[in-house]
Amino acid sequence: MKNNLRKYALAALFVCLICSFAFVACKKNPGASTDNPSNPSIEEVKVELSDSVLTMDINDTATLTVREGGSGNLKWKSSNTAVATVDDNGTVAAIAEGTAEIEVTTANGKATCTVLVVNSYVAPVLTVSTDEITLTIGDDYLLLPKLIYKGHDCTAEAQFGCTVADGEKDSIVTVVKNADGFLFTAQTYGATKYVVHVEYAGVALSAVVNVSVIDAGIVFDVVNIAPTTDGYCAQLSTYAIGDYVTAITPVVNVIEKGQTTNNAEISYTTDNERVATVVDGKIVAVDAGTTKVRGTYKESGFIINVTVDKPVFEVVATNGVVEVGRLADVAFDIRLEGSLVSATIGNAQVGKSITDGMLTLDREKLEAMPVANYGEHVALFIETNLVKYSTEIELYTLVVKNKQDYMSIGSLSKAACKNNDKLFGGYFVFADNITVNGGMSEFIDRTKTDFNGNGSQGFCGIIDGRGYVISGLTKTTDNGNAFISVMHTDGVLKNLGFIHAKFETDSGSFLVHTGAGTVENVYVQYDKISGGSSEGYSGTIYNANLSLNKMVVDVTNAQISGNGSNFALMTVNRHANLKNFICLFGNNYTLKDVIDGNVTVENDQDFTNDDYKRAFDKKVFFGFAALQQSEFFTSMSEWNGNLWHIDVDEGKIDFGVKEYVEPEFRYETINVQESDRVRAELDINNNGTLNNGKIIYIDIANIIDTSDYTLVSVNGNGAASNNVTADLFGYLYGNQTVQLVVDAEDTRYPKFCKQAFRYFEVEGAAEVVCVEVIHACLSERTTFACSNSVLNWLYTAYKRTQLINMHDGFPSDCPHRERLGYTGDGQITASAAMTMFDCESFYRKWIRDICDCQNIDNGHIQHTAPFYGGGGGPVGWGGAVVQVPYVFYMHYGDKSLVQEVLPHIAEWVDYIVSRTDNGLVCREENGGWCLGDWATSAVVIPQEFVNTTLFVCMLEKAAFLAEQVEKYDLVNRFTELSKQYRKSVTKEFFDDETGSFAGGVQGADAFALAAGLCDRRTLDNLVAKYTVNRRFDTGFIGTYVLVEQLLAHDKVDVAFYLLSATAKGSFGYLKRLGETTIWEYLDTKWCSHAHPMFGAVAEFLPKVLLGLPDKERTNEVVLRPRFPRKLSYAEGSALYDGKPVEVRWRKKNNTIRYRVFVANGLKVSVVCNGKTTVLSEGKNELTIQLLDDENE
To answer: How much is the pLDDT for 720?
Structure first.
């Protein structure tokens, strides 16, 4: 019935509307016939101006015209002549700010235009043809003034005047005004000043002109200051450093009538003493600016135009990571000079003072800065009264390294938005895995402040886990909070893992409860879920409208019990912008458990709906096998390999850049003496409730003898901070025993051992122990850093590992096990060590050790030197007698050592030839070792192939060395042998169908390339394999040869992808594990963790990325840098003849900004894109446009 009524009502309304329209139509002309109108129509004439609205600047004019209806005499008037006037021609003149109506009257009517007059504050500009007039007696000069106003030349209409300046002489010249300007005529010797003045558009303007009448017979020659067209030009600085000077004494030759006047007394004045003064004939800089210093002798003079600048330095912050929460003075590679004028980040002033040459920052100003000004590569500009500095820092609110840091996030986040109680900010990054094993810091507490969840309130900062994990985080409090309870639209949570997580309450959520914002690359692995809201108000993410990408909820080993069945493992808002968000079960639960309500994944689960079931199956997987068989699994290959690790063999997903290691705990009970009891007063509110927020002061630090602790619980109640609050006590009164549980570092200190160690521990009472790292006295020769953290780790880890293996004049394999000078390890690392350290004497000694250990009967080079022992192979080890002298010569150019070593090389070559069968190097001494490549878990590359290709390489290097000392008989012999062995190895191992050698296994094609055996297919096969492989499968020799050959054949991107990879068997893998040195094997932990040989490839970082060459005993340096696509910047230095060449480049789009500092005495050039550029001493900057095929 209701529906029918609605239809009738609508129909009635429709009829009424039609009738109404008809009525209106009839009323307009009742009874009129449309065919024969009785009265002719009269056309109305409308008056219209060219503009109905005009906006004008003061002193502007505009002309209005009548566009329509303009007949007869036009009469114009203004409603406000104080603002705008109008003449009989309609020309409007803007007088002052305001509004006026301009009206025109014609025979047909009237029209108006609204004129809005504004003041743009554009002032007229007065200039003169010169501000310095120099004449001799009888000469004259016509000074031409010019006036520009709003881009127009108004000189003709301006009324100029010219008068002598106050206190100046008017007898020096006469001034006559004419049609063009002012004619100055010299009358007598001397100097004076005149002022040209004009008033225009209500602005008074003036220009000062200096006039000098000089004796033409006196000539000045300032020999130590650069001449210009109008005198001389001196460049001074506010601070003297390097080439910057703060003062200069003019050396002036005075010539009178052709004769030099000795000891001429010249007086000096300055136009601006705030810029420069003159003291005893010396021009001294005061502050930045320009001035003229005038020298006068008798009736003549000269002018020195002085410019004072502040020197500008690009400095390096030595403690480049700045944390607001741990704010310390910022130190630089040079001392800051002067008192602080400003220190700016973006538009924010953040400096407080200069203290002991360091910058003291203002914490409150840093906290007030927007989070967009934080992060990596933050530009910081510092200006003192003397110098300007620019630098880059990393700026964060806090770098989280432990549980204490995590617990302080809340207070620091609030401090970043202290003026708004609904906002929390800050930029937090993690620098390590942390163990919490307790309650989370619910720093946005919804029980104390009301928040809305529309994205306008809550956390608006950034938390970047950088691939680290929090272990043991547990939600225990019964409230609506979470790790981030409320998230602002601008809030970001990314790159963070949560492992061994627990949810043990019936309200709130684990990760984010409400709000908006961005969540990306987050891993949550639960151990236990025993709570959850029966009304659906709890989950990993509750009702947050997030933009989410790449998140895994891992419950493969979770125990879900009690109300945990109500906990939404994923989210209660599945309609948010959720991408790549999955939940992974193990064998613990099945789909039936979800359907039966034993487990909840998300809201509104409806398995009767086919569309829902299909969507559910794409994001929820019961077992790793189900995930592996899904389309989603394929897409995970594109996830960040530094963060996400898919272990197919073990069937699991791991997260993190560093393997988490559960800390060991030692439990200790401390009983506080009765005399040290604490009096705690708890407040009861009028309604009988406890004042939960009241803080009870207990000196825990004094009890446990350290201030570095985290409060875990009070009487079993989990603590959210180190504050002991009344709610943790409950309603206690009288004498009570209170149990406080805290986490604190248990620092121990071991018995001294002369062997190597990474750490040590001391038990019991001990004296202060001094620890020093001991190694050979080798100074660093190179530095390096770039935009890839793995490459930075590789460079640093190799240097550290190499140094701790350099003792007693030989490079050992490891500092703790054999501690022998293995010739295999040593020959691979020799070039890298010489690249990074000044070790000429060190390796000269070891080369002689190698020769001393040669078997005098057969020429065999043993596997270790100077001591005997250990295993190896014919060429990979024995070839050190060639390889190490070869790289020594390439670095130091010492021919005398070549002369000394060459007989030993010839004997070793004879020995290897005697160990050859069918043209292949296949054995060493009888019953001895015959290794090829080594130190990979499964060596499959043939030993004969490795040794023979390496022998070809050694023969080529031996021939090169022989040629340097003109031993041509040896050159010919080594070259002929090389040809023979090439033929043999090609015949045995080359596959003509594929173009590969030895099946291409474990870098075999790289060995062939090194020996010059290949065709184009060999290189293509090698590149294709390792583009797909993405990890090293080579031993320590093959790894070096592989990288070397990829770079030698311009496959820079492939090489550096391998060097920066993070999968197991890579350097990034070691970095992920938190290692600080190079392992003996890259693919297994059960080995030495301090073997440098794999790290030898680090030498290519400064050599290739910066272009710094090997040869260091030279003053002629040719830089040949390469620029991998994945790098955005690189920087470093090297010494040549003890003098530095410093290189720094940054890439933006396809352009390189390449900077080089060249020390005095060096001749440096850069070769790039086929072009050679010769650099000058000092600072140089080049812009390099990358070619499309720059790296390939």
So the answer is: 63
What phi-psi label fits residue 680: left (phi over 0), alpha (psi between -120 and 50 degrees) or beta?
A: beta
The vertex-697 CA angle with 695 and 700, nearest 5°, equals 125
pLDDT at residue 760, as a whole number: 65
| Residue spans of beta strands (DSSP E) within 316-357 | 321-323, 340-345, 348-349, 351-355
Cα distances from 15 to residues 12, 20, 177, 894, in angstroms, run: 5, 9, 90, 111
Cβ neighbourhood burial of 76 (10 Å; 0-12, 13-18, 19+) = middle
pLDDT digits (tens, 9 = 90+) for 722-744: 778 777 777 667 777 778 787 77
What's the mean pLDDT when you consider all of the chain?
87
Q: Is 75 helix (H, G, I), strand (E, B) or coil?
A: strand
- Calpha distance 241→334 (Å, rounded): 11
The values of phi and psi at residue 86, to 5°, are -140, 140
Rounded Cα distance between 321 and 790, Å, is 18
Q: Is 1054 exposed, middle or buried (0-12, 13-18, 19+ CB in 10 A)?
A: buried
Question: Among residues 835, 812, 880, 869, which one has the least CA distance to residue 1092?
Answer: 812
Residues 6+ apart with CB under 8 A from 246: 236, 237, 238, 239, 240, 284, 285
What pLDDT does 1070 receive? 86
pLDDT score for 930: 75
Q: Give percent above pLDDT 90 in the chain.
A: 62
- Chain-centroid distance of CA 219 in Å reads 58
Q: Is 125 helix (H, G, I), strand (E, B) or coil?
A: strand
- For the beta sheet containing 512-515, the strands, ordered from the edge strand earlier in sequence to the opposite edge, are 423-424, 458-459, 484-487, 512-515, 539-544, 568-571, 600-602
- pLDDT tens-digit readout, 517-538: 999 999 999 999 999 998 888 9
pLDDT attached to residue 748:
46
CA-to-CA distance for 307 and 366, rounded, in angstroms?
Answer: 35
Q: At what angle do helices 1036-1048 and 1052-1060 cross, to 10 degrees?
A: 150
Backbone angles phi, psi at 1079, to 5 degrees: -85, 160
- CA–CA separation, 547 and 494 (whole Å): 11
CA distance 455 to 459: 9
SS3 827: helix
DSSP 519: E
Beta strand 782-786 pairing with 1129-1136: antiparallel
Distance CA 201, CA 60 (A): 10
Least confident interval from 157-161, 252-256, 1079-1083: 1079-1083
Calculate mean pLDDT across residues 804-832: 89
Mean pLDDT of 980-1000: 93
Residue 753 has pLDDT above 60, yes or no: no
Describe the crossing of helices 968-989 and 895-913 by its angle, rounded to 10 degrees: 40
- pLDDT of 840 reads 93
Which residues are 1168's β-sheet partners?
A: 1171
Confidence at residue 802, expressed as pLDDT on a 0 to 100 scale:
94
Give the span between the Cα atoms of 782 and 838, in whole angstroms: 9
Our separate counts of H helices and E strands in the chain read 23, 72
Q: Centre a 10 Å sphere on the Cβ of residue 633 and count the other Cβ atoms it contains.
A: 16
Q: Computed over its alpha carbons, how large is the radius of gyration of the chain?
A: 42
Residues 848-859 as b or e (16 or more Cβ within 10 Å = b):
bbbbebbeeeeb
Q: How many CB atoms lie within 10 A of CB 1175?
A: 20
Q: Could you tell me the pLDDT band of residue 814, with boundaries at 50, 70 and 90?
A: confident
